[in-house]
């Protein structure tokens, strides 16, 4: 259960008020004197302070929660009115708090679990950026004719773990060479394949309610002539962030033999092997 509906608007206002106060005071503590902020290195803090864009704030969960409970109590909402369990549920589902990274693991800093908030300094205080559920994973932006292309998406929820939540992936339209199987979109583009826009739907049921996420990206096709001209494309076809290596002029002028120096992991002695 969450915050009673008759209190929700005021609790939301108090939460923004609370965030504004602690983001403006990096030495903020709870009533026990425990720091709310997870301290960063001085150089990094200085760089963040100079930023005019959204910047991350890392909060120690227990102190952050305790201090917010104090904020509510001081403003007429003690635990008798809103139980601690309801406040915790409210914080767990708060869209301004990131609890889980895109890999599905709880956010950590210096070995401790933390909560993240992103905020930008404004003339009137702070602007906070919400974290929203989305289809994550980077699809390779290029597909090479004659070489299999594949992408395995996942749902990222900043406020919850999705490891055990079934998701059904589909696309409203796909080129004939692409298809979904076991949550993987894959296929091998034929010689006549054309670059196209791919839309992905992720359908799920959470807390008894159906949900749908959508993501669209553009897939570029490299024609057969380019692939056959340089076989090294094949080795890099599924690496979206790597550009196929450019051949050096010296590659074609190397002698038929060269010396390879290798280090044996077992003996740790260097040995030389003549290739040619």
TrEMBL record:
Protein name per the record: Uncharacterized protein
Organism of origin: Mycena pura
Lineage per the UniProt record: Eukaryota, Fungi, Dikarya, Basidiomycota, Agaricomycotina
């Amino acid at each position: 259960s969450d915050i009673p509906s008759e209190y929700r608007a005021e609790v939301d206002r108090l939460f923004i008020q609370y965030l504004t106060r602690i983001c403006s005071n990096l030495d903020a503590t709870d009533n026990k004197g425990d720091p709310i902020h997870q301290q960063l290195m001085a150089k990094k803090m200085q760089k963040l302070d100079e930023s005019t864009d959204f910047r991350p704030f890392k909060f120690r969960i227990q102190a952050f929660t305790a201090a917010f409970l104090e904020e509510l109590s001081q403003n007429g909402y003690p635990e008798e009115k809103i139980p601690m369990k309801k406040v915790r549920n409210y914080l767990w589902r708060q869209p301004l708090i990131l609890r889980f990274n895109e890999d599905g693991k709880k956010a950590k800093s210096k070995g401790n679990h933390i909560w993240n908030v992103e905020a930008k300094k404004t003339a009137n205080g702070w602007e906070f950026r919400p974290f929203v559920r989305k289809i994550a994973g980077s699809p390779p932006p290029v597909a090479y004719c004659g070489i299999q292309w594949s992408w395995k998406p996942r749902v990222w929820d900043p406020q919850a773990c999705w490891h055990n939540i079934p998701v059904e992936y589909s696309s409203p339209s796909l080129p004939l060479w692409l298809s979904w199987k076991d949550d993987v979109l894959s296929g091998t583009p034929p010689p006549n394949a054309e670059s196209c826009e791919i839309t992905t739907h992720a359908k799920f049921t959470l807390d008894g309610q159906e949900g749908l996420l959508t993501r669209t990206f553009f897939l570029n096709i490299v024609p057969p002539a380019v692939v056959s001209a340089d076989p090294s494309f094949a080795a890099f076809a599924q690496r979206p962030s790597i550009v196929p290596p450019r051949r050096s002029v010296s590659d074609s002028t190397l002698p038929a033999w060269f010396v390879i120096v290798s280090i044996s992991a077992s003996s740790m002695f260097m040995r030389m092997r003549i290739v040619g």
